[in-house]
Design a protein that fits this description.
- By secondary structure, this protein is an alpha+beta fold.
- Helices cover about 30% and strands about 15% of the residues.
- It has seven helices and nine strands.
- Strand 4 and strand 5 form a beta hairpin.
- Helix 5 packs antiparallel against helix 6.
- The longest helix is centred in the middle third of the chain and has 21 residues.
């Protein structure tokens, strides 16, 4: 059907093609019930103030509106979905724009679920991530196929630790440990580099007087996250006779391309932090202009890209 589109297809042609061949966005996700729901969350039991209790209960009730499940039973034989195989109920970060779990959003969600006593839901969300490690060797940024080219800060082990400290569920930890090790090995093998540098330091006597300056060669491991794990360059012509290779997120291609083309038109917050060559999307922020770009040479985790351009506002 795509090949049958005219070479100069109109917007209406493309809209009809999408309508004829694709289900509406989000059809593969449905609202879910929380099997472990409680009207008496543990964190409220020590709060006597009725206003604070009401506020806390209002927050707790948000979980019911954010619970989701995979819904692909309606797909015909041979039909596809971009949703990854997520077996258990999960909680989205909020709003209508997020239709699937995100990696480090899940970390904060699990903390909240445990505080609310919804430990079974939290356990299921962590199991979803462990299953993805079993398939891909790491946890993708989000639960769609177009997120499987990158990951986010690896917080899975910390999720399991926090869950265990609240539940003492050692059986789950034992089951999770092989996948936690597998993810750690992945980051250590494929997403880390050794950086060697010379560091100067002072040695002092017991009286605090400097005795000598010494230098030490240090090698430390630095982990990279954010850039595409399997980068595919796209040509983003700059208009100055040269073509820059940009690494733009497939799910946000238009937004990233627009940011790349327009962000450097005038001096702004980003002007000292973002070069215009060899670009990739370094964050998964969902609101502009927080899409952050960096050159491949500044891919290392460490000081913020904005450290030279942001100052405290007194």
């Amino acid at each position: 059907a795509f090949n049958q589109l005219p070479a100069n297809a109109t917007r209406d042609d493309l809209a009809k093609f999408v309508s004829d061949n694709f289900h509406p966005a989000g059809s593969d996700i449905k609202q879910a019930e929380l099997d472990d729901w409680t009207d008496d969350p543990p964190f409220l039991r020590g709060i006597a103030d009725p206003v604070l209790r009401g506020y806390g209960m209002a927050l707790h009730n948000q979980w019911k509106g954010l619970a989701r499940q995979r819904n692909t039973d309606f797909l015909c034989d041979g039909c596809e979905t971009s949703l990854l195989p997520i077996k258990n109920t999960f909680v989205v970060g909020g709003g209508n724009s997020t239709r699937e779990p995100r990696y480090w959003d899940t970390y904060y969600i699990v903390i909240g679920l445990v505080k609310s006593g919804l430990t079974s839901t939290a356990k299921g969300m962590m199991q979803n991530l462990l299953d993805l490690v079993g398939i891909y060797g790491f946890v993708p940024t989000g639960g769609r196929i177009y997120y499987t080219d990158r990951s986010e800060p690896p917080l899975l082990a910390l999720m399991v630790k926090n869950y265990y400290e609240a539940t003492l569920d050692l059986e789950f930890v034992a089951r999770a440990l092989p996948m936690i090790k597998a993810e750690h090995k992945y980051w250590d093998t494929y997403r880390s580099v050794n950086v060697t540098y010379t560091r100067g330091y002072n040695t002092s006597s017991s009286l605090g007087k400097r005795q000598s300056d010494q230098f030490q060669t240090v090698t430390s491991k630095t982990t990279m996250f954010g850039p595409s794990l399997f980068q595919t360059a796209v040509q983003t012509a700059s208009g100055d006779g040269s073509d820059n290779e940009g690494y733009l997120r497939p799910e946000s291609y238009s937004a990233d391309y627009t940011t790349f083309k327009t962000q450097f038109a005038a001096a702004n917050l980003f002007s000292t932090a973002i070069p215009t060559d060899n670009l990739y999307a370094a964050t998964e922020a969902g609101t502009a202009p927080s899409v952050q770009y960096a050159s491949l040479e500044t891919a290392m985790a460490g000081p913020s890209l904005f450290s030279t351009s942001l100052r405290r506002r007194d």
